[in-house]
Amino acid sequence: MASIAIDKLDLKWTGPEEKQILAKVSNRERISDDDCVYLYESSSLGFVGSLANHIREQKHQDYTYFNRNFHLEPTNVCIYTCSFCSYSRLIKKRSEGWEYSMDDMMDIIKSYDNQPVTEVHIVGGVLPQYDLDFYTTLFRRIKAHRPSIHIKALTPVEYHYIFKKAKISYEEGMKAIKDAGVDSMPGGGAEIFHPEIRDQIAKDKCNADQWLDIHRIWHEIGMRSNATMLYGHIESYLHRIDHMRRLRELQDHTGGFQTFIPLKFRNKDNEMSHVSESTIVEDLKNYAIARIYLDNFDHIKAYWPMIGRTTAQLSLSFGVDDLDGTIDDTTKIYSMAGAEEKNPALSTKELALLIQRVGRKPIERDTLYNLVKDYSNVQFEDDFKGYVSLPVAN
Question: Which of 114, 132, 261, 272 is most buried when burial is the number of CB atoms within 10 A of its CB?
Answer without folding.
Answer: 261
